[in-house]
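Now for today's protein:

——
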Amino acid sequence: MLLPTRIVFGDSIIEHAGHRDDFVVFNADTKTCHLENFGAIYPERAYSFGIAEQNLIGAAAGMASCGTKVIVATYSVFLCMRACEQVRTYVCQPGFDVMMLGTHAGLLTGTEGASHIAVEDISIMRAIPNLTIIEPSDAVSARAMAGKALDFQGPLYVRLHFAPVPDVHDPKTYRFEIGKANMLTDGEAEVTFLVTGILLGKVLEAAELLKKEGIRANVTEFPTIKPLDEEAVLCAARKTGAVVTVEDNTILGGFGASVAEVLAENHPIPLERIGIRDRFGESGSPDRLYEQNHMTVGDMVSAAKRAIGRKR
C-alpha cells in the first residue's frame, strides 16, 4: 500500500521512540503525520497546543533551551508563515535543537484547498540562517530520513507531502546523508535534471522519454535543499553544460533559485526551471494543477530540449 511521506516519516519517529527517549513531540492539534497519536503511547513525552502555531514554536524553543530535542508537527503553510518570526528568532537564531515537520507542502495538496497549500515554504525557510532543510521524494527516502533527522543537532525543517506517490528508491540500497545529493544517473549526457522532492518520479519518466528520442539526460536528486550540495551542482554543470531544476515550490527564491545562484557565481550555463511561477496554489487535483503550472512530464522534456538548444 502506498503511503504519503508525512505518514511514513511520522510512523518512523514513533518506531524510533521505542528504543530512544531523548526527544519529545509537540503537536498543533492537527492530523498531519500520525504524531498526533504519539501521546497515546508516550503520554509523558507529548504535548498538544491546539491551533496556536506561534505558541507551539515558542514553547518548543523553550523546551529545547533546556537541552531536550523537540519535534514539532503541523501544516507547512502555518509553520512557515504564521509562526515565521518564532522560527527565525526563537529557534534558528539561538540554534536550538528543534525538528520542524511541515506537512501538506506543494501542489500535491490540491484537494485539501488553496488555504492549506504551501508553495512558498522552501523560499521562506532557506532565507533563515542556521536552518537545515530536507525533503523526501518517496516513502523509502522518508523512512531513511527519520533516523538521520533524529541524530541531527540544530534547527531542522522537514518538508513532507499530503498524498502518496509510487516509490522510486530501493529500500535495500538507498542511502541518505544530510548535505549530500544523490546522482541517480551519471553517464555521458547532454543535460542534467536537478530535482528535489516529490516530483523525482516524473523527472525519471522525462529522462526515459528523452532517451527514446536519442537525447541523454542525467538525474541528480537533492534530498537536502539547504545546505545545497554545490559541488554536485557544479559537477552536473561541467559535465553536461545544461541544467533543468524541478521542484514543487515557487521558483521565486526556491530550490531552482539556489541552483541559479551557484551557477551564476561559479559556472554560468543554460538553465531552465520547472516550478510554480508567481502564483498561489489552488483547489483541485494535483494533475490538473501541475498541468496549469507547466510542471508535467511533457513540460520537463520540453525544458530539457530548450536548455540543450540554448547551449548550441
Observations:
- The chain has two domains: 5-159, 182-311.
- The two ends are 45 Å apart (CA to CA).
- The CA atoms of residues 210 and 216 lie 7 Å apart.
